[in-house]
Amino acid sequence: MANRINAESYWHLVWRKFRRNKPGITGSIMVIILAALAIFSDFFSSSDPMALSMRYTFRPPQRVHFFHEGKFQGQPFTYALRSEYDMASGTSTWLEDTSQRFIIRFFVNSYEYSFFGVKSRLHLFGVLGADEYFFPLGSDKMGRDMWARMCRGARISLTMAVLGTLISIVLGAWLGIMSGYFGGVIDLLMQRFTEFMQSFPQLPLWMALAAIIPRGWSQMTIFVMMSLIFALLSWPVLSRELRGKVISMTNSDMILAAKEMGASHQRIIFYHLFPNNFSHIIVVMSLTIPNILLAESFLSYLGIGIQEPLVSWGLLMRDAQTIETLGSHPWIMMPVLFIVIAVLGFNFFGDGLRDGADPYTRH
């Protein structure tokens, strides 16, 4: 048994330890599900997330039923909703109209969408008929399906978080390794620049930079600029951590032997230093994504981040800025649940990677 384990590669040992980490596995499943919803958002949507219909304004979530008048129906269905106004309280109450049943069908044709240039009308579920509707998580003030908009919002929020993190990781890893390996004047200048960047409070600077972006720019340009802003202030932590690790590695027998054999700086960096710090980079990446996700949601919630017609989780929460809305339409806060799931998923996944990246220790 010992010989077989010793013969395994480092990545096999990492996977062996990671799969024993139940929170890490749970987090990876959560991340995979959210990624699938983001990539295939139109397929998982029951209606067009951009379609406006004042007829369906602030519809509450519809329940799925299998029994009608005490009899099992064999197919899931939902009832239509009707509003009743309470004169005493001055509020409207939504009740199920059991005389109208909408059968929920799977793999139905609905609105047309494009997936990587391929047009399709296939959707995972939906109800048929022009007058039939199904809002599993309710609708917003414009009558748009909240479930469809949250799936579409996952695409923007997660993409921005991942893109900003990748830029931050590339910049931080490059500067950190260069600083620790070459030392001297290069290390001095890079560290002073890193300390200068760390001296800024992140959240106020994020808000200031996001606020000066011209509103006249295209939404895609704003999306890219927001990603760059998040990356701008996220790289110094990784840079300092890798610098310390590389400094300790430059005096190791492995690096000294490579220098004695005439290995170039490029080969030492890309064949020795970078691979031996790759596991740490992956862990930092998995923990940086939720931080950027929260920052994007906060800025969009304040109105200085993502704007229509793009959709993000933070933008969806802007409809829940008043106590009146929260009291009358609490399902508008559903994007918070998605954000919590994403943050917990990436944190669990990152903790699992952190333990797995050191497979030779026992906990």
SSE blueprint and pairings:
Blueprint: H1 2-7, H2 10-18, H3 22-39, H4 41-44, E1 65-68, E2 71-86, E3 91-103, E4 105-115, E5 118-126, H5 146-182, H6 184-198, H7 202-211, H8 219-232, H9 235-250, H10 253-260, H11 265-276, H12 278-302, H13 313-316, H14 323-328, H15 334-356
Antiparallel strand pairs: 1-2, 2-3, 4-5
Shape: elongated
Query: If you average the pLDDT, what whole number results?
Result: 84
Largest sheet: 3 strands, antiparallel
Amount of helix: 55-70%
Which CATH class of the largest domain?
Mainly Alpha
* Structural domains: how many: 2
Structural class: alpha+beta
- The proportion of residues in beta strands is 5-15%
CATH topology of the largest domain: MetI-like fold
Identify low-pLDDT runs.
Answer: none
Spatial sequence of strands, sheet with the most strands = 1-2-3
Looking at this structure, what is the CATH superfamily of the largest domain? Answer: MetI-like
Radius of gyration: 26 Å
Order of helices and strands: HHHHEEEEEHHHHHHHHHHH
CATH architecture of the largest domain: Orthogonal Bundle
Description of the molecule:
- It is built from 15 helices and 5 strands.
- By secondary structure, it is α+β, with helices and mostly antiparallel strands.
- The protein folds into 2 domains: 9-39 and 150-356, MetI-like fold, CATH 1.10.3720; 42-144, no CATH class.
- Strands 1-2-3 form a 3-stranded antiparallel sheet, with no helix packed on it. Strands 4-5 form a two-stranded antiparallel sheet.
- Helix 2 (10-18) crosses helix 15 (334-356), helix 5 (146-182) packs parallel to helix 9 (235-250) and helix 12 (278-302) packs antiparallel against helix 15.
- The longest helix has 37 residues, at 146-182.
- The chain is elongated and about 85 Å long.
- The chain starts with a helix and ends in a 7-residue tail after the last helix.
- The mean pLDDT is 84.
